[in-house]
Write a structure and sequence with these properties.
579 residues; alpha+beta; 8-stranded parallel β-sheet; 6-stranded antiparallel β-sheet; 27% strand; binds ligand FHN
Length: 579
C-alpha cells in the first residue's frame, strides 16, 4: 500500500490533463440525425443504443490524425504534470490492445493500432506521468456491468462479481503491466461495488505497481486521495488530499455541438481557487474520432501555459490559503518563505491586507515585468489589527491573473479570527460558524466541500463572532447552495439574522428575508464554487454598526419553504458595505 509520501509528486503537480477519448467521439453527440442531450460519452446510455448497434461505431473509428507527442507536448506546454486517459469508459470499449476483451481499438477498428503505446512512450520522453481512467462499475457492453438495462434487464450480484473477475481485474492487470510506471488509476462511479470489491481492486493495483495511486472513486472511501464531484469547487478549506475533475465546455467526450467554452480567465480562476484550497485540478479535453484535440481546447491550454510559465511557483507544490476565509479580491497560496497573492482584479495603486502576522521582507510582482513593491506593515493597537499595505504599479503585470509574491521570515503566520477586510466586507463562511444543534434532531454538519448541510430543524441556529474595525451601514448577503446530487432547490427559505454587539442601530435587526428564488449558474466568479452548482445569493438588511468592536451574527431559519427538500444548505454569509 502506498505510504503517505507516495502522493508527493501528485501534490507537487496540482494540475493535470484528463482525456475522454472513445467510440462516442464518432457520433459526437448526434444519433440518427438527432442531437442527444447530456454529456457526449453517455450517448449510448441516453439513447438506449443496443450493444450490437453501438459496437458498429468501432468500424468508423479511425483516428489517423492521432499524434501522441503532440498531445503530450500540449499538456506539458499548459503546465500539466500528469495525463489521465480513458482506458475503458462506461461503454466498455478498451482504448488499448486488450487480450481479455476483443471490444478494443486494436482488434475492432480499422486503425488496428494501440494509441496508448505511443502515449506511454511520449509521456516517458517528456517526463509527464501517464495515468489511466478505468470504469470499474458501469460497463454497458457487459451483462455483468452496471448500467445497460435495455440489453440486460437483470443484473445479479453473481454476474457483477463475474464481470469483475473476468474483465475488470484482467484489464487492470494489462494496463498496469504493459505501459511502464503508471501514476494513478482513476476509477469512477462506484455504484454497486461492495467495499470488499473496492478493496480488492485497490490491492490489485498496489500489488502490480506499489507506487500507483488509486482515485477516491474506487468506492467506499478506500482510495489514496479524494475526488470532488465533477466541476466542484469547495466553498472553503478541505481536509486531506483532493482533486476536482473539470470540463472546459459542458461535455467530457467530444460533442460537436458543445461550444459552451469557458474563457481562459474562468479556467485560470478555477485553477487558482482550487490551488488556494490545496485541491488538484484535472482539466479535460475530448479529442475527436480522428484523434484531434479541438482547437478551442488547444488555444485555451496554450494561454494557460503562458500564465503558468510566469506564475507556476504560486501553484506547483503550493500550500492552501493560510487564512480561514476567502477574499473578494482573489486568492492566496503559500510555500516555504513565500506568500502568493493572486488577484482576480488588480487593485488601484494601493492594496491592504489585514491579519498577516509574518514580517514581509520583500514584495515583487511576477509576470510580464518584475516590479519591486513598496511594503508597509503596522500593528494597529487600538483595532488590534496587523495591516499590510502594498504600493502597486498602475500597470497590471499580467492581463489575466496578476500575482504578487511576498517574501516572509519563516513560516506564514496569520490572525485566524474573522477580520473586516480592507474593502470593509466581512466574510462569514459556514465552516467558521459555531453550530448550535438542537438536542434530539439530526445534526447539521459540513460536507466535504465545506457547505453546511442537514439544517432541517427550526430550533437549530448558527453564529459567528467577528471584529469590526470600520463601522457603518451594511447589507447582509447569504449564499445558500444546492447539493450536487440530486440537484435540488437551494432557495425559498425564510431566515432571521440577528446582530449583537456594542452598537447596532436597534431598528435594523433582527432582519428577516425569504431567500431569493433565482437559481444562478455559471455567473459569479467571486464565489467560483457556484460555477456548476445551483446557488442562491440573497440580499438582506441593511444593518447599521455604529462603533468598532466584537459582534455576533446569529442566523435562524423561520421557515424552510415548500421546495427546499433538504432544508437549508449554507455556503457563507457576508456583510458588504451599503451606501
Ligand atoms: O459518468 C462519468 C462521466 O462520464 C465522466 O467520466 C466523469 C468525469 O469525472 N465521471 C463520471 C460522472 O461523475
Amino acid at each position: 500500500m502506498p505510504k503517505k509520501d507516495h502522493l508527493g509528486w501528485w501534490r507537487e503537480a496540482r494540475f493535470g490533463m484528463f482525456i475522454h477519448w472513445g467510440l462516442y467521439a464518432v457520433p459526437a453527440g448526434v444519433w440518427k440525425g438527432k442531437q442527444i442531450p447530456g454529456i457526449g460519452e453517455w450517448i449510448m446510455f441516453r439513447d438506449r443504443i443496443p450493444v450490437e448497434e453501438y459496437g458498429k461505431l468501432a468500424k468508423k473509428f479511425n483516428p489517423v490524425k492521432f499524434n501522441a507527442r503532440e498531445w503530450v507536448s500540449l499538456a506539458k506546454r499548459a503546465g500539466m504534470k500528469y495525463i489521465v486517459i480513458t482506458s475503458k469508459h462506461h461503454d466498455g470499449f478498451a482504448m488499448y490492445d486488450s487480450a481479455s476483451s476483443d471490444f478494443n481499438i486494436k482488434k475492432a477498428t480499422p486503425y488496428k493500432k494501440d494509441p496508448i503505446k505511443d502515449l506511454a512512450k511520449a509521456c516517458a520522453a517528456a517526463g509527464v506521468k501517464l495515468c489511466f481512467y478505468y470504469s470499474q462499475d458501469q460497463d454497458w457492453h457487459e451483462q455483468g456491468g452496471r448500467g445497460n438495462t435495455w440489453d440486460f434487464p437483470e443484473l445479479t450480484k453473481k454476474a457483477f462479481a463475474d464481470y469483475l473477475e473476468n474483465k475488470v481485474k484482467p484489464q487492470l492487470t494489462e494496463i498496469l503491466t504493459k505501459y511502464g510506471p503508471i501514476g494513478l488509476i482513476w476509477f469512477d462511479t462506484p455504484g454497486i461495488i461492495s467495499r470488499k470489491q473496492s478493496l480488492e481492486l485497490k490491492q490489485l493495483v498496489h500489488s502490480l505497481q506499489p507506487d500507483c495511486l488509486v482515485s477516491g472513486r474506487v468506492g467506499h472511501g478506500v482510495g489514496d486521495y479524494g475526488s470532488m464531484g465533477d466541476n466542484m469547487i469547495p466553498a472553503g478549506p478541505v481536509n486531506g488530499d483532493w482533486e476536482t475533475p473539470a470540463t472546459m465546455n459542458d461535455t467530457w467526450g467530444f460533442k460537436k455541438h458543445d461550444t459552451n467554452w469557458k474563457s481562459v480567465k474562468d479556467l485560470l480562476v478555477l485553477l487558482v481557487d482550487l490551488a488556494s484550497k490545496g485541491v488538484n485540478y484535472l482539466l479535460n479535453v475530448g479529442p475527436t474520432a480522428q484523434g484531434v484535440i479541438p482547437q478551442a481546447s488547444v488555444g485555451r491550454l496554450n494561454q494557460i501555459g503562458e500564465w503558468m510559465k510566469k506564475h507556476g511557483e504560486a501553484i506547483y507544490g503550493s500550500k492552501p490559503n493560510p487564512f480561514p476565509f476567502e477574499f473578494p479580491w482573489g486568492r492566496i497560496t503559500h510555500n516555504s518563505g513565500k506568500v502568493y497573492l493572486l488577484f482576480y482584479e488588480w487593485p488601484k495603486k494601493e492594496f491592504v491586507l489585514k491579519g498577516l502576522k509574518s514580517t514581509v521582507t520583500k514584495a515583487q510582482t511576477l509576470g510580464d515585468f518584475k516590479h519591486n513593491v513598496e511594503v508597509s506593515q503596522v500593528y494597529d493597537k487600538a483595532l488590534k489589527e496587523n495591516v499590510l499595505t502594498l504600493k502597486l504599479p498602475a500597470k497590471k503585470p499580467d492581463k489575466l491573473i496578476p500575482v504578487v509574491v511576498l517574501e516572509i521570515d519563516g513560516d506564514v503566520k496569520v490572525d485566524k479570527s474573522i477580520q473586516q477586510q480592507a474593502d470593509e466586507s466581512i466574510q462569514l463562511p459556514a465552516h467558521l460558524a459555531k453550530l448550535d444543534n438542537a438536542a434530539g434532531g439530526t445534526p447539521m454538519k459540513l460536507d466535504r466541500s465545506s457547505i453546511l448541510v442537514g439544517w432541517t430543524n427550526k430550533k437549530n441556529s448558527v453564529r459567528w463572532n467577528f471584529n469590526v474595525s470600520a463601522p457603518g451601514k451594511f447589507r447582509i448577503e447569504t449564499s445558500t447552495a444546492a447539493v450536487a446530487r440530486p440537484r435540488i432547490w437551494a432557495g425559498g427559505q425564510t431566515v432571521e439574522l440577528s446582530l449583537n454587539g456594542p452598537a447596532v442601530k436597534s431598528a435594523a435587526g433582527p432582519t428577516v428575508k425569504t431567500l431569493n428564488k433565482k437559481i444562478r449558474r455559471d455567473e459569479n466568479l467571486d464565489t467560483a464554487r457556484t460555477k456548476h452548482l445551483p446557488e442562491v445569493i440573497s440580499k438582506i438588511g441593511p444593518v447599521v454598526i455604529k462603533s468598532p468592536g466584537m459582534y455576533t451574527l446569529e442566523m435562524k431559519v423561520l421557515d424552510f419553504g415548500k421546495k427546499a427538500q433538504n432544508g437549508l444548505q449554507l455556503s457563507f454569509v457576508r456583510l458588504v458595505r451599503a451606501q
